[in-house]
């Protein structure tokens, strides 16, 4: 029997397939940063519609961190570009440095599921206190969930009470 994921909830706008996949590629590789604000606004509405009150919102929202080399090459973290306006829309704080990538891993897109899990299993650390907090993690695309699982494990080990993912697009299971 499969073990449940370490995160508590996930919000995703849509499946990663045409024509929406081109939006994620545009954000990630072509600096179409206005797409991040649109993704953030829609994710905020999704969270607001699913929550009975603001106490359900995360205490802090953080992006999936990029490796330093990848951040330098790209010039921005697409997840942070979504996280900032998402946090503003929900009226919660955001923190770009809450999570840090400690290993410069192989891009996940080149790996199968088990290799993805191993690739990121020890790639992150929590840089600020999260004990008792509900942490929202933001990413542009959720493929296998391995990165978000690794971050949730890391956050829970550091004392986070709850972990919720906010992703623009997710790869369909079928």
UniProtKB/TrEMBL annotation:
Residues 37-167 form the Phosphoribosyltransferase domain. Signal peptide: none annotated. PANTHER family: DNA UTILIZATION PROTEIN YHGH (PTHR47505:SF1). Belongs to the ComF/GntX family. This is ComF family protein. It comes from Paraburkholderia susongensis.
């Amino acid at each position: 029997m499969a073990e449940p994921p370490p995160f508590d909830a996930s919000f995703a706008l849509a499946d990663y397939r045409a024509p929406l996949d081109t939006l994620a590629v545009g954000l990630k590789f072509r600096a179409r940063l206005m797409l991040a604000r649109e993704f953030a606004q829609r994710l905020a509405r999704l969270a607001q519609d699913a929550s009975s009150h603001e106490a359900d919102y995360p205490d802090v929202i953080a992006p999936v961190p990029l490796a330093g080399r990848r951040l330098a090459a790209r010039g921005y973290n697409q997840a942070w570009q979504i996280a900032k306006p998402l946090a503003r829309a929900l009226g919660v704080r955001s923190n770009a440095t809450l999570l840090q990538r400690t290993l410069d891993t192989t891009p996940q897109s080149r790996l199968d599921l088990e290799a993805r899990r191993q690739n990121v299993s020890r790639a992150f650390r929590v840089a600020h206190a999260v004990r008792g907090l509900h942490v929202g993690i933001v990413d542009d695309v959720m493929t296998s969930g391995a990165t978000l699982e690794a971050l949730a494990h890391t956050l829970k080990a550091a004392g986070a009470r709850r972990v919720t993912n906010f992703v623009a697009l997710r790869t369909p299971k079928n």
